[in-house]
């Protein structure tokens, strides 16, 4: 562990040419947690290895369900307490954006004709290319947003992710009972690893699709373990829905290990059926969905479409070659989960041996293959609480942890001090990480509130000098409500002249957002500086400051 931390520090801090979000979070969130945990382990090593053990009863519905309800409520409350009801990243904003037009009965927002020429300034990134000259749609697939729209109709879209988390935990509990029927201790270890995961809890406070991937993967596994035509049929439905959560390749990476497992067990019918399901997933979400959008809204424009299979594969390999960060994101995944998670999962694989793995008696191999596939794609995620590209495999890690526990403890007894120490440390880490996440998000949320409070028709955001200040230029989920917020970098001098002549305009720049706490970044000369100088020369843009609004 110390070697991993040292290598991550040298690669991403000491020898790094620049410092991005991955490096900032590594120093601000991950290093303090991992070093603090290592120190606690050293100090408590003697105490945790002593003490009594006990043989627990299986986790009952009452106890497990009660814990899941508490976690659900914590995630729901955390949306307001930790994140102030603000979606930090474009990924999250697009999930809410799509949920808004689905709630209104559409698959895209029509752009009013008078704003067509400003469409990229109003929605700068992460938009669908199909019909983009006259419609706004999210670049992601629709299922995650459809779930949010459903919960919006029920009263609160922010309940969607917490409920999905609870569903995933319930499916994990069910799977642990099926896989470890005679080992209640392994069932408890599996659940405690998930219950104390900061990544599962904090991510469920956001609109990210990753909570859905965790839930759907565990539901798919539950259906597979049930067996029979009902079980495999249910698994097919879950897999197709999971493919449409936001990107279709995530569920395939989870399923492919099980296809190999079916082959090892000579379950040829199951292999053929689920291989066919994988083909259906690709055909539906990579081919038919874009075709539907083209039929409804028109061909791709503004940006190059990248929904095809070849585009997706090329993009994945390209990202791995350009921005593979195994050191930083390994540390991040460790920091945001229980300290026993990875050691126990690795022990499960090692204790099985290659003969045991390929004998296929247990699903250790397919679970491990999925985890390995996720780990291989440790590309730059920018924002994310934990390593979100591994989020769908946390359930797999927890089940592997159960197998690792069985290999470690043949007697079926739990050392109370060891588990208590691991869980208390994980809970303390969760509180610290949620606090650090809040401190990072709060300035951006305050900036968004300040922008929305402007009395003008328009607010133009000059993002120079702030870390990811470009993300402040966003619509109200595609709704045209005053003020409209535009990105300066997506305008030109002619459009600025027209907007300033026809509307009241406020300017939001580093003089406004730096005092709110948004981290500073280097101010570079270029097109933005030219556009800003033009605005100044024509006297366009009331400086938007809290002090000005308070007068």
TrEMBL record:
Which keywords, in A-to-Z order, does the entry hold?
Answer: Membrane, Transmembrane, Transmembrane helix
The organism's place on the tree of life at top rank: Bacteria
Would you tell me the protein name for this molecule? Answer: MFS transporter
- Which sequence ranges are marked TM in the entry? 32-49, 61-82, 159-176, 188-210, 234-261, 268-286, 333-352, 364-384, 390-408, 415-435
- Source organism: Sphingobium algorifonticola
């Amino acid at each position: 562990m110390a070697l991993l931390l040292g290598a991550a520090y040298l690669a991403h801090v000491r020898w790094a040419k620049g410092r991005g979000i991955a490096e900032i979070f590594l120093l601000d969130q991950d290093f303090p947690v991992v070093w603090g945990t290592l120190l606690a382990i050293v100090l408590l090593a003697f105490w945790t290895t002593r003490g009594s053990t006990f043989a627990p009863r299986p986790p009952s519905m009452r106890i497990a369900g009660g814990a899941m309800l508490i976690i659900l409520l914590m995630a729901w409350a955390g949306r307001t307490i930790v994140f102030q009801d603000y979606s930090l990243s474009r990924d999250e904003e697009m999930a809410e954006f799509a949920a808004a037009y689905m709630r209104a009965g559409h698959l895209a927002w029509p752009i009013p004709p008078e704003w067509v020429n400003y469409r990229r300034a109003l929605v700068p990134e992460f938009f669908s290319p199909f019909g983009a000259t006259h419609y706004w749609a999210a670049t992601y697939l629709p299922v995650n947003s459809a779930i949010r729209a459903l919960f919006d109709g029920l009263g609160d879209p922010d309940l969607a992710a917490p409920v999905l988390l609870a569903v995933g935990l319930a499916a994990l509990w069910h799977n642990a009972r099926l896989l470890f029927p005679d080992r209640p201790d392994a069932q408890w270890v599996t659940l405690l690893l998930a219950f104390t995961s900061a990544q599962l809890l904090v991510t469920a406070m956001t609109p990210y699709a990753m909570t859905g991937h965790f839930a759907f993967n565990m539901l798919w596994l539950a259906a597979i373990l049930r067996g029979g035509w009902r079980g495999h049929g249910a698994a097919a439905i879950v897999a197709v829905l999971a493919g449409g959560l936001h990107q279709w390749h995530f569920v395939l990476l989870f399923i492919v290990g099980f296809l190999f497992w079916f082959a090892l067990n000579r379950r040829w019918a199951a292999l053929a059926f689920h291989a066919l399901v994988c083909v259906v997933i690709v055909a539906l979400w990579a081919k038919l969905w874009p075709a539907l959008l083209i039929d409804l809204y028109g061909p791709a424009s503004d940006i190059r479409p990248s929904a095809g299979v070849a585009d997706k594969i090329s993009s994945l390999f390209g990202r791995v070659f350009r921005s593979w960060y195994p050191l930083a994101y390994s540390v991040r995944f460790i920091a945001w989960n229980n300290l026993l998670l990875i050691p126990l999962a690795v022990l499960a694989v090692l204790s099985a041996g290659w003969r045991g793995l390929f004998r296929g008696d247990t699903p250790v191999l397919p679970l491990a293959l999925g985890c390995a596939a996720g780990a291989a794609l440790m590309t730059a995620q920018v924002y994310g609480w934990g390593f979100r590209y591994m989020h769908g495999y946390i359930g797999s890690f927890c089940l592997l942890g159960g197998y690792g526990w069985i290999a470690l403890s043949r007697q079926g007894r739990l050392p109370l001090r060891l588990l208590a120490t691991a869980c208390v440390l994980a809970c303390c880490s969760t509180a610290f990480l949620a606090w650090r996440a809040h401190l990072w998000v709060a300035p951006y949320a305050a900036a968004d509130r300040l922008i929305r409070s402007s009395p003008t028709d328009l607010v133009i955001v000059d993002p120079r000098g702030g870390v990811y200040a470009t993300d402040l230029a966003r619509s109200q989920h595609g709704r045209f409500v005053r003020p409209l917020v535009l990105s300066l970098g997506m305008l030109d001098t002619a459009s600025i002249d027209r907007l300033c002549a026809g509307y009241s305009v406020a300017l939001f720049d580093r003089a406004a957002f730096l005092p709110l706490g948004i981290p500073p970044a280097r101010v570079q000369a270029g097109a933005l500086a030219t556009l800003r100088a033009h605005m100044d020369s024509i006297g366009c843009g009331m400086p938007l400051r809290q002090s000005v609004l308070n007068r």
